[in-house]
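Risk mitigation, structural track. In case the binding assays with zinc ion fail to produce interpretable data, a predicted complex structure has been prepared as a fallback.
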Amino acid sequence: MSSEKTGSSEKTGSQAKHIVLTSHPARFGVKPISIQWGEADPLVRGAIVGTLTNAAQRNVIGSHSGAYGVYRALAVASGQLQSDHRADLTNTSPAALLGPHPAWSDPEKIVSLDPFGAIVGEVYQPLYEQGYDIRPTIAITKAHINMPELQEAAAKGRLKIDGTIMKANGDLVVTKAAIEPVWYLPGLAKRLAVSESTLRRALFEQTGGMFPELVTRPDLRVFLPPIGGMTVYIVGDVAAITDPDRELAVRIHDECNGSDVFGSDICTCRPYLVHGIEGCIQTAQAGGAGVIVYFRKEGRALGEVTKFLVYNARKRQEGGDRADAYFARTECVAGVQDMRFQELMPDVLHWLGITRIDRLISMSNMKFDAITKSGITVVERVPIPADLIPADAQVEIEAKKAAGYYTEGQVPTEAILAAVKGRDLSD
Ligand SMILES: [Zn+2]
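Fallback model:
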């Protein structure tokens, strides 16, 4: 490998040695931008540059697009994609403006996404002119969505066809934002109450050594992790989200492909998601706004293979699938009951400028604790109505109530838990 680089002559010897690992001759004579996480002025904070077209510009570990970076590698390897392709961002700017909000310049309120990620094209215009390849990590657009349950709610009079939020054909008008994770490692370590070096070493080792810079480049403090991000769906006027005089409904939903998309009856995910959307529409139609955040944390962030293994273990155990063994079976297979790390979840709420949630449509004590601990007030918690719980999901819901999930009813006793049974695999 050549150590010859254009435009990096000011580097110290030790930095130059690191650069050699990944660099190729720079096309532009520009240096990596320093990142001052938590600065209010985006130009002082510094642009996140994860480009692969010019290694000398990079100031992060990892690459854009999360897990899809691996597909990009396949496209390059097979010759379908030029490795030096630069995105043409014409007309891609946000369809609605969100922020800036005070939390954007609090280095501890937001550590797992880039608050300026949607507006890089605007705020870093001078840097583009200098040749920097800066990609948005957030995209904001508008859409009409249509779900049969919402049509049913409108037919039953629970939702109004008002022509603006809900159209005559049942379409729901939403503003939506897709967000890729951008991790500020010192802030993330602090949030998880571990040392930064412990965090870096675990990330390095548990990805099979995928990102050596985690342990070789302590000067690079931002990591674009190869994981799924989140999508925000906003119902109603976006300005209502931060207006103290208007109400806000929020559901934080973690992906469950089996139920959300395919309607599996083993859990309450899709019914609760739809109930959350309904609550958002009702709040928006009363003059407020509703926010659904959809996280790609399939199967409590254990993945679908683990999830299906657990389903089998639950249904084949002695005595069959029952609420009193619900969490134990997950722990047997995965080693833990849950890997979602709700400590990072409130970042997106702070990015939206949320300081008060009037209706939190969730029973999860972990989500409630994370949200309130981060400084957001929760006025009311909304459980899933009993008539929306599928028969085979009674095991899940009773186990969760016993484990501390919010309920307005009775917390099930040991005897009740042991009696709540699910279907057999053979049925
Ligand atoms: Zn589910």
